[in-house]
Amino acid sequence: MSNPVSLNWHLNHHSQADHDLRHLIVDISRACKYISYAIQTTEAGLSGSKNSFGEEQLTLDVLADDLVREYLSESGTVCCYVSEEQPDIVELDKKGDYTVVFDPLDGSSLVDANFSIGSIFGIYKGGDIIGRTPREQVAALYVLYGPRTVLTYTLGNGKGVHSFILNDVGEYTLLRDHLGVGDDAKVYSPGNLRAITTNSGYKSAMHSWLDEEKTLRYSGCMVADIHHIFAKGQGIFSNVGGGTESKYPNGKLRHVFECGPFAFLMEEAGGIASSGSENILDVPITSVDQRTPLIIGSKNEVERVNNLLHA
Length: 311
Ligand code: AFP
Fold this sequence. Notes:
alpha+beta; Fructose-1,6-Bisphosphatase, Chain A, domain 1; D-Maltodextrin-Binding Protein, domain 2; 2 domains; 8-stranded mixed beta sheet; 5-stranded mixed beta sheet; 13 strands; about 30% helix; binds 1,6-di-O-phosphono-alpha-D-fructofuranose
């Protein structure tokens, strides 16, 4: 029996990642292995914030943030990072070449329901990300903690999008390589639907999906919902805003940690990500907590929804 392809081998031989970037991605994958284990073994979130001895427990999102920080600190390749759990940019190793942006636990409000959740990462070369765009990422990856744990990464530049499964002995082995997303969508995944009360364009998009009898798949965790598009090779996911008086006028999602990394992965797979008016990869980062509307997935469907949003 031939050996399965490991993540490290794939980064090295297929994607020809440079030495530090390869080690950084492998270090991130290790942190996620422990996050996956913590999700399987802790009762935090499932049982409330106290353990069986009545002691306060760390919530899973704080635990996940600590684990990622620990591995990034040890890697020696990271000059700074930006986490959805931290208010500011955190400086690490002055000699490090990379900035890592991440949401350590996306979908944390779903933990008590035992739904799938995930982690999202974008990697930039150099220090300051303010004023730059997500197109400048040199890698993006996400880990989906579902019935099985799956990691998907890209280095962009035509090197493809590849998925790995965490096996029973704690190794990531190749599941599917060169994931592709076709131009037309049969499946839709509409987030922040509360916006249709004040956004007539979004309401039209929703009605068109119903009229066309497309298939609804929506879990409330964007990692799981966008992974569905990569797994099926088609689909559309949206999270757009309502009027200026609504709770999320720009949609609920963060540009830096959520929209940017997924846009980088989606474009590499042949799909596209839009803010409704611009390619997400070209929307400049003005602050770490900036929100952007997101319409992502099969090209023709994203374009059709953009037109409805502006009609
Ligand atoms: P939580 O991390 O608070 O659970 O939020 C998850 C999320 O940011 C993203 O993963 C979902 O797609 C989105 O929120 C769900 O938004 P709606 O509840 O408005 O559809």
